[in-house]
Amino acid sequence: AEGVAGEVGRDVGRTFPRIPLFASSTAKGAQGRAVLYAVLLEFVRLCPDVGYCQGVNFVAAALMALDSAPDGAGAMRLRRRTPAAVTWLLVALARRFSMADLWGPDLPRLHVITYQLSALIKRHLPGLSAHLSAIGLGLEVLAAQWLIPLFSSLLPELGP
């Protein structure tokens, strides 16, 4: 558990650092990071078979930002319900929507998806397929950074 806590702690510090809700330079950001850390550890406790996977931090942070409310100064603040709501949304994603197969040990669903994506690219974009093969770039490298965080890591701004 100490290893997971350390890994989660490192990832929390790298999660949307320019968004005020998670910025290291503000008290509000420190609170947001502390809540994100607690949410991720609670998810690991509730889903020990899934564990922690880099990228889930972005999903949780995006959900936190979506459930936050503007304060009087135009910044975002967490609602009281946010930590529990985000934790249970992560559990639902893992259990009801099969994300456990993408976030769990050995990432079995990632391998299936990238195999399917490779086959589609080979069939419909043979030039791209040949180029990727020539430079030795496997799709798992690219696809993992999109699929595991459910594309949330690509969102340019989640706050004001």
From TrEMBL:
Domain Rab-GAP TBC: from-to ranges: 1-160
InterPro entries the record matches: Rab-GAP-TBC_dom, Rab-GAP_TBC_sf, Rab_GAP_TBC_domain
Gene Ontology MF terms: GTPase activator activity; small GTPase binding
Transmembrane segments: none
One Pfam family here: RabGAP-TBC
Cross-referenced SUPFAM superfamilies: Ypt/Rab-GAP domain of gyp1p (SSF47923)
Coiled coil (UniProt feature): none
Source organism superkingdom: Eukaryota
Name this protein carries in UniProt: Rab-GAP TBC domain-containing protein
Organism annotation: Bicosoecida sp. CB-2014
